[in-house]
Amino acid sequence: MLGEYYPSEPFDGPGEQQRDLSESFRTKKNTILKSHGRPPWYGEDGLPICDAFVIGIAGGSASGKTHVAQQIVRSLGSVPTVVIMSQASRDSFYKYHTPEEVALANANRMDFDHPDALDMPMFAACLADLKACRQTNIPIYSFAEHQRLDETKYLYGAAIIIAEGIMALNDPALRELYDLKVFVQCDSDLMLARRIQRDVKERGRSVEGVLEQYLRYVKPAYDNFVQPASRYADIVVPGSNNAVAIELISTHIRRQMTERARHFRKNMASRHVDGCLNASDNSIEGLDLIVLPQTPQLKGIYTILRDETTNRQDFIFFVDRLATFLIEKAMEHLPYRPKAIMTPVGEECVGKELDVKHVCGVSIIRSGGPLERGLQRVLSDAPVGSLLVQSDARTGEPLLLHVMLPICIRLRHLAENAWVFLLDAQIGTGASAFMAIRTLLDHGVRQDHIIFVTFLVARSGGVSVLRKAFPRVTIVCGAVDDNLREAWLEHYDAEGEGHHEGDGRKVWIMEPGMGQIGAPLQPRFPPT
């Protein structure tokens, strides 16, 4: 479940729990994310084909902009990820202040309601990144200190973005980014009453200070800048009693999401990999896969792992052993540089060392988990993040439900030089792998810096589409299975595509396969 992100806290591995939307509304005002899963936002060529849907909401201070945004999210119901940049142009994007300006702010002599107080170019840049399906890091402003903080808030994965603030419709660059522009109209007396209540309770201001600032700066700014911008709005919404307007907006958004939906997993599952195992270079002709040498030892390990009578303890032991082999093979594709050392007997020896500043792992939950231990054995200090990709029971399409990435990926200037081991147990239809690779590319990771490590690849699956879309991604696998069979998984708590009787969903099973390797507590061979 995608939830709130707290970039000041480390995201170097799984374990952080996101809060749901109702909790977010009660505890955090600045950023809210809600997700029922983000469907594919890209085509079979791997390139993004639909931007996020962006809504700009403007209105006077305390007019009810945040409340309107929250009502829209609640009214949407089951939709892809929603991000609210709450009061973004008002709070987060104030410029840095000098000591003199901070002193003026503390004395209520600083005009925070003038457009010049806002860093509009930064706001537009952050919003443009989110709209283009890239990650961004928005600044954080402290009202207590009257200053922009050094820490930032990481955001990614939005299918719908709601950006609201008093100046949200003033800047032409911002208006170009909006798919829908909304202005919240509210009585000035009600806005003043709300502002007094909010600033006294939440920001520790005195009533006298609030009134002085309102008359000196807020009211003139509303008359001169905020209210005139209402002419750019596509729809004007009342600040209260606005259920009809909210429903109209929500209906329009749902229609847009339906039109932007992408479906191609079934096509990926039916693709056949032309080529055969080439013993000389351990690859599949025409696909440039790196396959472990098929030695008797390796075949013996796979025999044990494929055997349904293998006990849990032996299964885990040999999975860990195989994972270590695969990571060691993947390590060969990292850059190295010469290094001169002195041996214990006093002789100089020239060897090699890693020429990588940032290297990390990203595990596709849950099936990538067994490969994490292999990575930790070979690179004990490498941070490990996670992605949760699951199938929509109705369509079979992948849904991105959770993103938790190491800091070297979340910051674009670091991601450009980072190397990533992407971990998953198998590549069947390739839909989850496709989505995971696209997510890393959205963060600025170079395609040739991604090394996909997996136990099995289905020859008659989606790997050919994956290689065509991302030809510079290195794929390291242990074995290639010939068949990918479509089956029906009974007793699944949702209505599946092609559903005819009972609850269940459509699945694709690799043959001979290794069962449900990512879920050792469950039967490794699901019913057919």
Sum this structure up briefly.
With about 525 residues, the protein is of the alpha/beta class. Helix content is about 35%, strand content about 25%. It folds into two domains: about 20-260, P-loop containing nucleotide triphosphate hydrolases (Rossmann fold); about 265-510, Rossmann fold, CATH 3.40.50.
Description:
It comes from Leucogyrophana mollusca. This is Armadillo beta-catenin plakoglobin. With 528 residues, the chain is α/β, with parallel strands linked by helices. It has 2 domains: 21-260, Rossmann fold (3-Layer(aba) Sandwich); 265-511, Rossmann fold (3-Layer(aba) Sandwich). Helices cover 33% and strands 24% of the residues. It has helices at residues 21-27, 65-76, 88-92, 99-106, 120-131, 172-177, 188-202, 207-226, 243-260, 265-269, 296-306, 312-331, 369-378, 407-410, 412-415, 431-442, 463-469; strands at 31-34, 53-59, 82-85, 136-142, 147-155, 160-164, 180-185, 235-238, 277-278, 283-284, 290-291, 336-342, 348-354, 359-365, 384-391, 398-404, 419-423, 426-427, 450-458, 474-481, 483-490, 504-511. Strands 11, 14, 15, 16, 17, 18, 19 and 20 form an 8-stranded mixed β-sheet that branches. It has a 6-stranded mixed β-sheet with strand order 1-3-6-2-7-8, with helices on both faces. Strands 4-5 form a two-stranded antiparallel sheet. α2 packs across α9 (243-260), α11 packs across α12 and α12 crosses α13. The two termini are 28 Å apart. The relative contact order is 0.12.
What's the domain count?
2
Please name the CATH topology of the largest domain: Rossmann fold
How big is the Rg?
Answer: 27 Å
Low-confidence stretches: 1-34, 272-286, 492-502, 519-528
State the separation between the terminal residues, measured CA to CA.
Answer: 28 Å
Shape: globular
- Most strands sheet: 8 strands, mixed
Work out the strand percent. 15-25%
CATH class of the largest domain: Alpha Beta
Rounded average pLDDT: 81
Number of separate strands: 22
State the helix count.
17
CATH architecture title of the largest domain: 3-Layer(aba) Sandwich
In helices, the fraction of residues equals 25-40%
Q: Classify the secondary structure makeup into a structural class.
A: alpha/beta
